[in-house]
């Protein structure tokens, strides 16, 4: 009528699940989870309109930034200077 549930033993399961995990560790896949440091760029931007500052930073860092030109019209960005990541440069400008 009802089958009794059994817990698989090592004889039934085998050692196979251990092998893929050890291959991942040996091949360096375990290291892939650690973030790499961001690329730093030499940024020298004077205080200028926000749209121009963002476009210059995007050009220098080869990143993409979407913004509404109407939303930043009439606003002036802070000067940005130093070796910064793209994120830090954009944050400093704003």
Task: Outline the structure in words.
Helix content is 39%, strand content 11%. The chain contains 5 helices and 2 strands; from the N terminus they run ααβααβα. About 15% of the residues have low confidence. It has a domain of 56 residues: 3-Layer(bab) Sandwich (Phage tail protein beta-alpha-beta fold), CATH 3.55.50.30. With 94 residues, it is an alpha+beta fold. The longest helix has 12 residues. It has a two-stranded antiparallel sheet.
Structural key phrases:
94 residues; alpha+beta; Phage tail protein beta-alpha-beta fold; two-stranded antiparallel ribbon; 5 helices; elongated
Write the topology of this structure.
Blueprint lengths: L9 H4 L4 H9 L14 E5 L4 H12 L7 H4 L7 E5 L1 H8 L1
Antiparallel strand pairs: 1-2
Shape descriptor reads elongated
How far is the first residue's CA from the last residue's CA?
71 Å
Structural class: alpha+beta
Q: How much helix is in the residues?
A: 25-40%
Chain-averaged pLDDT: 78
Regions with pLDDT < 50 over 5+ consecutive residues? 15-19, 21-29
Give the topology string: H per helix, E per strand.
HHEHHEH
**Order of strands in the sheet with the most strands?**
1-2
Q: Specify the CATH class of the domain at 39-94.
A: Alpha Beta
Distinct helical segment count: 5
- Percent of residues in beta strands: 5-15%
Main sheet attributes: strand count, strand direction, barrel closure: 2 strands, antiparallel
In the CATH hierarchy, the architecture of the domain at 39-94 is 3-Layer(bab) Sandwich
**CA gyration radius, whole angstroms:** 26 Å
Q: Which fold name corresponds to the CATH topology of the domain at 39-94?
A: Phage tail protein beta-alpha-beta fold
> How many runs of DSSP E, i.e. beta strands?
2
């Amino acid at each position: 009528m009802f089958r009794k549930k059994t817990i698989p033993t090592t004889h039934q399961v085998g050692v196979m699940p251990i092998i893929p995990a050890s291959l991942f560790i040996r091949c360096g896949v375990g290291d892939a989870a650690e973030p790499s440091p961001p690329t730093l760029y030499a940024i020298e931007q004077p205080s200028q309109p926000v749209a121009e500052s963002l476009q210059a930073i995007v050009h220098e860092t080869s990143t993409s930034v979407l913004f509404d030109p109407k939303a930043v019209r009439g606003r002036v960005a802070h000067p940005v200077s130093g070796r910064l990541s793209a994120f830090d440069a954009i944050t400093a400008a704003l």
